[in-house]
Amino acid sequence: MDALPPQAPPAEALARLDALMARGAAFFGTRYAIMGGAMSWVSERNLVAALSNAGAFGVIACGAMEPDRLAQEIQGTQALTQKPFGVNLITMHPRLDQLVQTCLDHKVGHIVFAGGIPPGSAIKAAKDGGAKVVCFAPALALAKKLIRSGADALVIEGAEAGGHIGPVSLTVLAQEILPFIRDVPVFVAGGIGRGEAILSYLEMGAAGAQLGTRFVCATESIAHPNFKRAFIRGAARDALPTVQLDERFPVIPVRALQNGGTKRFLEHQAETIRRFLAGEVEKAAAQLDIEHFWAGALRRAVVDGDVENGSLMAGQSVGMVTREQPAVEIVQELVWQAAAAIAARQPA
Predict the structure, then answer these.
(1) Greatest CA separation for the chain
(2) How far from 202 is each of 140, 183, 206, 221, CA to CA, in Å?
């Protein structure tokens, strides 16, 4: 990323940006309507607190954590910031209800449900406990359904994002959803790496933006130096979705930087399919074998630094990550880029 401008954009431009961000910032209780994407092993107390302290909205990635472990992470984050932050819960977690209660017990103000449509009981429990509910909406019909179910805000995430992705780009989702959803704030996500992009979606009606990949190389991020170096070296074209070889053996699409592991996954699929066709393994066992290939791979990359065999989940905005820098500097850079774009429209 380019360095910060030598001076702040004009006050009028910053005020205009504040006005565009007002709804989203008020929803989170933050200075800026910039939400941290929940990235397993990366979005823990240090990065989450740093983002919130920088005026953005940090979000803990619960992932596969058990309730006791989540409680520790929430308390650890609260020890590092007095600012609002949220918790992202995966709807398929077998103890989703207990995780919701853990958030409520520790006064978490915002619960983000991801990885599927959350059960109505979980939404109700969160709202009854005083938390605001944020849900991911991959289509307009589902967006309306989630609002009817009680969602207080929505995130629309395009296929440009890192990790598990849907099939539709943010460019299209924004056109399909933003003009028609006004009841609740809608935050955009996927492939966003600069302030000018945030501005464009704000002017389309978004309440704010969620960014994940852009924050991986924050100084406060505990991601292994090897993991960060892979992001700094990576280009947009290097972040590709998982390839599925046979429709009989579906593979959940995950966008990640290509490495030795992604190549071996293709070989593993081919060999497993060969074994199935030869009658050496039953279909269910073959499917399980394919699904288990990446077990623990994200942790191996993020925590252990095994960037050759681990999973390097990254969005296409990875090409805009060029160095390690403090979270507050990244947030300010995004804000100033957006405000500078507003200022550039004014006649000299």
Answers:
(1) 74
(2) 18, 16, 5, 27
Domains of the chain: 11-221+323-343 (3.20.20.70), 235-313 (no CATH)
What pLDDT score does 47 carry? 98
Contact 270, 245 (CB under 8 A): yes
pLDDT confidence of residue 186: 98
Residue 78's nearest CA partner among 64, 58, 63, 96 is: 58
pLDDT of residue 346: 76
* Tokens encoding 10: 């004009």
Bridge partners (DSSP) listed for residue 85: 58
pLDDT of residue 8: 86
Residue 314 to residue 190: CA distance in whole angstroms: 10
**Residue numbers of the chain with a pLDDT score lower than 70:** 1-6, 347-348
pTM of the model: 0.95
Cα distances from 140 to residues 108, 136, 211, 253, in angstroms, run 28, 11, 21, 21
> CA-to-CA distance for 319 and 321, rounded, in angstroms?
5
79 contacts: CB under 8 Å, gap ≥ 6: 45
Give Cα separations from 124 to 28, 66, 92, 146, 179 (angstroms).
19, 21, 17, 12, 27
**Strand 58-61 relative to strand 85-90, pairing:** parallel
Comparing C-alpha atoms, which of 163, 234, 169 is closest to residue 197? Answer: 169
pLDDT of 1 reads: 45
Residue 187's nearest CA partner among 23, 52, 329, 334 is: 23
> What tokens appear for 131 in the block?
């938390």
Q: Return the closest-CA partner of residue 150 out of 180, 130, 127.
A: 127
Please give the pLDDT value at position 66.
Answer: 97
12, 34 Cβ separation under 8 angstroms: no
